[in-house]
Specification:
Strand content: 15-25%
Distance between the termini: 22 Å
Strand order of the largest sheet: 7-6-5-4-3-2-1-8
Shape: globular
Structural class: alpha/beta
Mean pLDDT: 97
Radius of gyration: 17 Å
Helix content: 40-55%
Order of helices and strands: HEHEHEHEHEHEHEHEH
Bound molecules: pyridoxal-5'-phosphate
Number of strands: 8
Low-confidence stretches: none
Length: about 230
């Protein structure tokens, strides 16, 4: 299957899942996660109509950024863990950071975006399964409302919602309770900060249809578009 065929198939599945949930498929963005993917194949995905990409390493993206710049209208978001010492570089390179997990990082990104005269959209990553190996804010710690309150003063970042990666299980139905839990958290936070809760990024190659049924507004799909990556990535 070519990348264009894979994309067509993913879009069809998005449409079907949206239909099952009584949702408009236009309310769900497809992000092509292009970590480890060559610039040639990224151009192919762009040629097939993809306009939103995700990368998970600042350095890797820096090396490929020239190719994205030739793709007029393409947006690239950081979806991986971001160390605060790389915040300034990330603010410069990316169109959005979908994985902020501390007030300190939010402040660093804000300062960097302000210096660049840029307004940077961000999502807050939630560690919905409470896994030690994953980054993200614990869902029930009180840290999320504190971050949302404190971030009101950070004028160069714009908090747009939440992002999560649930514990992996080959059975996609195992993701559903986690998607449901973050949706509840999202709705709760929207009560106090409606402008900050517009986007809910969840669902990957193996479980994006379930994520859509549970309210995802952005699915992040790598393997189902570009094929298998090396195991360690
Ligand atoms: C790699 C990655 C994805 C895509 O994963 P696939 O299973 O290949 O679709 C999505 N989100 C994040 C944060 C990732 O790191």
């Amino acid at each position: 299957m070519s990348i264009a065929e894979n994309i067509a198939r993913v879009l069809e599945l998005i449409e079907l899942a949206a239909g099952r949930a009584g949702r408009d498929a236009d309310s769900i963005a497809l992000m092509a996660v292009s970590k480890t993917v060559s610039v040639e194949r990224i151009r192919e995905a762009f040629g097939a109509g993809v306009r939103l990409f995700g990368e998970n390493r600042v350095q890797e993206f820096a090396a490929k950024a020239h190719a994205f710049r030739q793709c007029q209208g393409a947006q690239v978001h950081m979806v991986g863990h971001l160390q605060s010492n790389k915040a300034a570089r990330a603010a410069e390179l990316f169109d959005g950071v979908d994985s902020i997990d501390s007030l300190r990082l939010a402040q660093k990104l804000d300062a960097a975006a302000s210096a660049l005269g840029k307004k940077l959209p961000v999502l807050i990553e939630i560690n919905i399964g409470g896994e030690a190996a994953k980054s993200g804010i614990p869902p029930d710690s009180g840290e999320l409302p504190r971050l949302l309150d404190a971030a009101q003063e950070l004028l160069s970042i714009e908090i747009r919602g939440l992002m999560t990666v649930p514990p992996f299980d080959a059975d996609r139905e195992k993701s559903r309770p986690y998607f449901r839990a973050i949706r509840r958290l999202f709705d709760k936070m929207a009560g106090r900060h409606p402008a900050c809760m517009q986007a809910l990024s969840m669902g990957m190659s193996h479980d994006f249809e379930v994520a859509i049924e549970e309210g995802s507004t952005c699915v992040r799909v790598g393997t189902a578009i570009f094929g298998e990556r090396r195991r360690d990535q």
